[in-house]
């Protein structure tokens, strides 16, 4: 199967410059449906499913290869190579913000800008760094996924989404979690929550917008400040909203922030 089919790549829009959107854990490209279309008048919008997610080729998921995020970054670069895309604007949510960063490091000639939506390079608290979780918290989270993935999904979806007044949002995230192969989800969760990409941030060669949510149960605001300090050329924008998925819960502010940044960069 070729790389385009493997990742269920879909392309829309009328522009020449490519803008690729990469989804977060337990999700797929449909999660960008409230944001990506806003850019179709100016860009060639590319959506994909990471291997193991959505309508990607699940048979391509090799646990040994995907034990780290670097393999997913290589996949993204391969998609762009197949499309012969350069000067790409990559928008990555959550773990895919780090996948996007690794992709820019691996193939800097392909990218013009990176947009990180609710990113975190490391989820654990350490001296001088507030990642949001203690080691016991992550151990408990992963153990709960191993024991009862569907139960974990039902408990975590409202926490991650952060809008108790809009239960349909948590419901959609729950359904997305449930549609993911539990074995792949558990494996990807370890690659996500146990990775430490703080040292990689200084190597990101691409101008970067960090979109940080002010009330995010997974990622403290301090992480945004850390990223702004570590990334060589970055801008931090705080989205005054709740939850870890602003592209679903607050699509208009998210879209406006991205559009404003791209205009500033004349992209």
TrEMBL record:
<dbReference type="GO" id="GO:0016787">
    <property type="term" value="F:hydrolase activity"/>
</dbReference>
<comment type="similarity">
    <text>Belongs to the AB hydrolase superfamily.</text>
</comment>
<feature type="domain" description="AB hydrolase-1">
    <location>
        <begin position="19"/>
        <end position="255"/>
    </location>
</feature>
<dbReference type="InterPro" id="IPR000073">
    <property type="entry name" value="AB_hydrolase_1"/>
</dbReference>
<keyword id="KW-0378">Hydrolase</keyword>
<dbReference type="InterPro" id="IPR029058">
    <property type="entry name" value="AB_hydrolase_fold"/>
</dbReference>
<dbReference type="Pfam" id="PF12697">
    <property type="entry name" value="Abhydrolase_6"/>
</dbReference>
<protein>
    <submittedName>
        <fullName>Alpha/beta hydrolase</fullName>
    </submittedName>
</protein>
């Amino acid at each position: 199967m070729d790389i385009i089919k493997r990742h269920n790549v879909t392309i829309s829009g009328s522009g020449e410059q490519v803008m690729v959107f990469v989804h977060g854990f337990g999700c797929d490209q449909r999660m960008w449906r409230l944001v990506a279309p806003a850019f179709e008048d100016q860009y060639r919008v590319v959506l994909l499913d990471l291997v193991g997610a959505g309508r990607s080729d699940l048979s391509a998921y090799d646990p040994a290869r995907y034990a780290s995020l670097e393999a997913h970054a290589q996949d993204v670069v391969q998609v762009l190579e197949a499309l012969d895309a350069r000067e790409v604007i990559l928008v990555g949510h959550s773990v895919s913000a780090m996948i996007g960063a690794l992709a820019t490091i691996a193939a800097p000639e392909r990218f013009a800008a990176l947009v990180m939506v609710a990113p975190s390079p490391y989820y654990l608290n350490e001296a001088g760094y507030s990642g949001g979780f203690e080691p016991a918290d992550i151990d408990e989270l992963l153990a709960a996924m191993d024991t009862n993935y569907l139960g974990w999904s039902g408990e975590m979806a409202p926490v991650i989404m952060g809008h108790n007044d809009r239960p349909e949002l948590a419901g959609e995230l729950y359904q997305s979690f449930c549609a993911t192969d539990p074995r792949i989800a558990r494996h990807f969760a370890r690659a996500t929550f146990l990775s430490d990409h703080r040292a990689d941030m200084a190597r990101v060669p691409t101008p970067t917008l960090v979109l940080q949510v002010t009330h995010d149960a997974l990622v403290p605001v301090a992480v945004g400040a850390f990223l702004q300090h570590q990334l060589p050329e970055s801008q931090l924008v705080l989205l005054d909203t709740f939850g870890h998925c602003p592209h679903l819960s607050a699509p208009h502010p998210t879209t406006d922030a991205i559009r404003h940044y791209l205009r500033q960069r004349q992209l």
